[in-house]
């Protein structure tokens, strides 16, 4: 692999290795710095969004309060009638205690406090004149006031949010809520990150760095400083500048504060004239670059030494390389032969497993269909017995002229038994899709013809309502008849002890489906029966009277035809089975 090293001297390899190592060190340090900065920028943007949302949440929690209080009748009355101010004091005290704000107070049109939540404290705002505050003039002009400053009464800084008080369409006063954000600022400080908020004048109002509090980003002009003093916004504070306004004006980048470099990002705070800044020390970039540089230098030196070592080794091992390569190829061939044999064995096992699964699926499906046929074949046998008994009775009475009809019925039933047992063959060809258009009305008529003797013997009346056009579905005629027979026979069994036995069958269509409702006048079903009704081998009949497969088979047939079946109790008593099957397109006339 390193045979080409034999063509160069040791000195030339050392020079080339040193030059390449220096280039690699420079590229590694440069790319590490860029990558680290991008990572810090991504992290900074996420942290900035988090700080911004937490601060806005702390403020928005109380932003609605002045608006609501300004519309309370006790507050409005306190301005109109100063004698009721004590009632307003108590109201403001209760509201402020529930909200958790620092203070809640009401000013009249002159800016004098007429009621306050801290009316009974030494720092009460009652009687104080705050007309010099911007939040008062903004609210008096009909706008929401938002102002940060140090309280002239309490000496504690906070955010003041105001809202005008209206009476008969005129502004008669102002409601102000004061929020102290000390807890937010404390959380920032405990987080160990550098974040601060500056107002429209560039004054730092909230910060995780205590030494930056009330510093300005750029020196204030005489006009701005005079305005701030008139507003008594930061009394007793010098408002010295950090001289970083021009650097921060870009919104993001690198800023140097007190000889320390930071990567910063910023965004405006919605609903205010503030801007929040998040700073990340560039020491992380420098430290990582230094570590990468050290690693790269060591690695470069090791590479140079390795190249020299390989050159010497290459000269010694050239004669042995071909032998080792031959051994490697032989080992590779042996391993490939083993893998090929293992793969062939695995393929044979998978093919056998697949055949077993297919056979198991066929046996399970045929077993289920055989159970259905064993259950349903009892119906035509019972009918044949009935017709035979009837024929015997006719012979005894000498009415041989009517025997032809009974024999025809018996012949028809034997043909039906043949059709039922032929379902095994139909099922075996199921995957070929041997469904065909079937008129549901015809299938229902065949089923009723089969069950008519039993209906008459049990004195059960039948009501059949259906449209006068064919109801064509894609299905199998024998199995559709099986659905009808199963449900109607269950209805007959359910009405065994009923005084009035009546079955009503309603056929209807909509744009996509054919719906068949079969309703009886039996006692209905309880919740447990409804839940287990279509489970295999579940039956409410006495032992020996049924195996619990009829409705389970019916459920499977309906599902195979792409339909649904459900049962429920009617409001008039009795049960109703609803079968919904897809209507064949263009079949409705």
Automatic annotation (TrEMBL):
State if Kinase is listed as a keyword.
Answer: yes
Query: Where on the tree of life does the source sit, at the highest rank?
Result: Bacteria
Entries under InterPro entries matching the protein? dCache_1 (IPR033479), HATPase_C_sf (IPR036890), HATPase_dom (IPR003594), His_kinase_dom (IPR005467), HisK_dim/P_dom (IPR003661), HisK_dim/P_sf (IPR036097), Sensor-like_sf (IPR029151), Sig_transdc_His_kin-like_C (IPR004358)
Annotated EC: 2.7.13.3
Q: Which regions form coiled coils? A: 319-356
Compartments (UniProt record): Cell inner membrane
Keywords annotated in UniProt:
ATP-binding, Cell inner membrane, Cell membrane, Coiled coil, Kinase, Membrane, Nucleotide-binding, Phosphoprotein, Transferase, Transmembrane, Transmembrane helix, Two-component regulatory system
Q: What does this protein do?
A: Member of the two-component regulatory system DctB/DctD involved in the transport of C4-dicarboxylates. DctB functions as a membrane-associated protein kinase that phosphorylates DctD in response to environmental signals.
Task: Indicate what this protein is called per its UniProt record.
Answer: C4-dicarboxylate transport sensor protein DctB
Source species: Thalassospira profundimaris
């Amino acid at each position: 692999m390193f045979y080409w090293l034999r063509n160069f001297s040791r000195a030339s390899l050392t020079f080339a290795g040193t030059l390449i190592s220096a280039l690699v060190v420079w590229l590694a340090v440069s790319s590490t710095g860029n990558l680290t900065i991008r990572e810090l920028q991504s992290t900074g943007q996420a942290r900035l969004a988090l700080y911004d949302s937490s601060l806005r949440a702390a403020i928005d929690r109380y932003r609605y309060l002045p608006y609501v209080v300004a519309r309370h009748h006790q507050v409005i009355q306190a301005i109109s009638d100063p004698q009721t101010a004590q009632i307003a004091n108590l109201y403001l005290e209760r509201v402020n205690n529930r909200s958790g704000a620092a203070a809640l107070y009401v000013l009249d049109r002159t800016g004098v406090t007429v009621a306050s939540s801290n009316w009974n404290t030494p720092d009460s705002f009652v009687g104080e004149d705050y007309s010099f505050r911007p939040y008062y003039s903004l609210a008096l002009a009909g706008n929401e006031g938002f102002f940060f400053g140090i309280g002239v009464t309490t000496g504690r800084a906070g955010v003041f949010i105001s809202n005008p008080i209206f009476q008969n369409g005129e502004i008669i006063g102002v409601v102000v809520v004061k929020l102290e954000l000390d807890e937010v600022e404390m959380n920032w400080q405990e987080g160990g990150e550098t974040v601060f908020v500056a107002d429209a004048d560039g004054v730092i109002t909230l910060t995780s760095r205590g030494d930056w509090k009330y510093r300005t980003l750029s020196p204030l002009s005489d006009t701005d400083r005079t305005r701030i003093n008139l507003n008594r916004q930061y009394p007793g504070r010098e408002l010295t500048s950090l001289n970083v306004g021009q650097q921060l004006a870009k919104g993001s980048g690198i800023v140097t504060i007190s000889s320390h470099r930071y990567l910063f990002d910023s965004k405006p705070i919605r609903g205010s004239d503030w801007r929040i800044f998040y700073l990340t020390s560039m020491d992380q970039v420098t430290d990582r670059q230094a570590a990468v540089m050290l690693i790269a230098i060591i690695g470069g030196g090791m590479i140079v030494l390795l190249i020299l070592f390989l050159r010497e080794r290459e000269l010694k091992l050239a004669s042995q390389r071909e032998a080792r390569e031959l051994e490697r190829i032989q080992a590779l061939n042996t391993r490939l032969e083993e893998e090929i044999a293992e793969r062939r064995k695995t393929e044979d096992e998978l093919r056998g497993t697949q055949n077993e699964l297919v056979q198991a699926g066929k046996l399970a499906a045929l077993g289920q269909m055989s159970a259905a046929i064993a259950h349903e074949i009892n119906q035509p046998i019972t009918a044949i017995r009935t017709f035979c008994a009837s024929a015997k009775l006719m012979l005894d009475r000498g009415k041989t002229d009517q025997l032809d009809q009974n024999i025809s019925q018996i012949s028809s039933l034997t043909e039906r038994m043949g059709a039922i047992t032929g379902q095994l063959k139909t099922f075996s060809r199921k995957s070929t899709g041997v469904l065909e258009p079937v008129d549901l009305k015809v299938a229902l008529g065949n089923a009723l013809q089969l069950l008519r003797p039993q209906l008459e013997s049990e004195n059960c009346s039948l009501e059949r309502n259906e449209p006068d056009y064919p109801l064509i579905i894609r299905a199998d005629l024998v199995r559709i008849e099986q659905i009808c027979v199963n449900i109607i026979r269950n209805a007959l069994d359910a009405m065994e002890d009923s005084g009035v036995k009546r079955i009503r069958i309603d056929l209807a269509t909509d744009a996509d489906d054919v719906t068949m409702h079969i309703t009886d006048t039996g006692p209905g079903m309880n919740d447990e029966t409804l839940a287990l009704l279509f489970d295999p081998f579940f039956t409410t009949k006495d032992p020996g009277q049924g195996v619990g497969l009829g409705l389970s088979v019916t459920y499977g047939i309906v599902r195979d035809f792409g339909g649904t079946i459900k049962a429920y109790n009617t409001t008039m008593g009795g049960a109703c089975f609803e079968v919904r099957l897809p209507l064949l397109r263009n079949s409705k006339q």
